[in-house]
């Protein structure tokens, strides 16, 4: 849906959100294929790495890029795109090269896979990219809220109130997705991980839809 909107309207933030949503979709498919082929099998390990690289490491930062593109000038956005592409490639290489704890991987079904990769450079990049994504989404929400208080009606051609609420939804959804594993462990029910993720994505997608609405003439 968002990709179709981008094709029709050519708004860059819709493209970056489409990329992030596709990453999440591919990561979820990789997780399912990993379980079907056996987590500790050769293909299973590969699909686990793919799931973790796209879903756990790279995707959140592209959500943040969409928020930045929503309110920033094209030149600044292009700089961010180039920088993020470089970090994404480096992160993917680190995840693909990381050492896997095969015992944890064997019991991954229904869990986020936290602790399955042994600590290494991938962990630093994951923290950096996730932090950048959350800061970008939260920063745009705060900026739009501040401008709304100052009675600035629009930002980047969109209504300030629309940007504010869109990014609030995206922020809450992103936080739920990031915290899904922790919440599951705290509650002692690993099998609710995907339920929390589903809730997070529904809320996040509502924000994306809200931001993509055409302003009334």
From TrEMBL:
The chain crosses the membrane at residues 15-38, 50-72, 79-100, 120-143, 164-186, 192-211. This is Uncharacterized protein. It comes from the Bacteria. Keywords: Membrane, Transmembrane, Transmembrane helix.
């Amino acid at each position: 849906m968002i990709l179709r909107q981008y094709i029709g309207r050519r708004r860059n933030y819709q493209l970056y959100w489409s990329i992030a949503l596709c990453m999440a979709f591919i990561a979820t498919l990789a997780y399912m294929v990993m379980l079907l082929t056996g987590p500790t099998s050769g293909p299973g390990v590969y699909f686990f790495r793919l799931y973790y690289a796209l879903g756990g490491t790279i995707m959140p930062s592209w959500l943040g890029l969409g928020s930045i593109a929503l309110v920033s000038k094209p030149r600044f956005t292009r700089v961010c795109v180039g920088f993020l592409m470089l970090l994404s490639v480096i992160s993917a290489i680190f995840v693909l090269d990381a050492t896997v704890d095969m015992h944890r991987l064997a019991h991954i079904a229904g869990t986020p896979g936290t602790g399955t990769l042994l600590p290494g450079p991938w962990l630093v990049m994951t923290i950096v990219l996730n932090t950048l994504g959350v800061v970008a989404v939260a920063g745009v929400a705060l900026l739009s809220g501040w401008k709304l208080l100052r009675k600035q009606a629009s930002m980047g051609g969109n209504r300030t109130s629309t940007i504010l609420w869109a990014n609030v939804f995206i922020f809450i959804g992103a936080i739920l997705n990031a915290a899904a594993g922790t919440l599951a462990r705290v509650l002692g029910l690993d099998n609710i991980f995907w339920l929390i993720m589903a809730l997070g994505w529904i809320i996040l997608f509502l924000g994306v839809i809200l931001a993509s609405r055409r302003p009334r003439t």
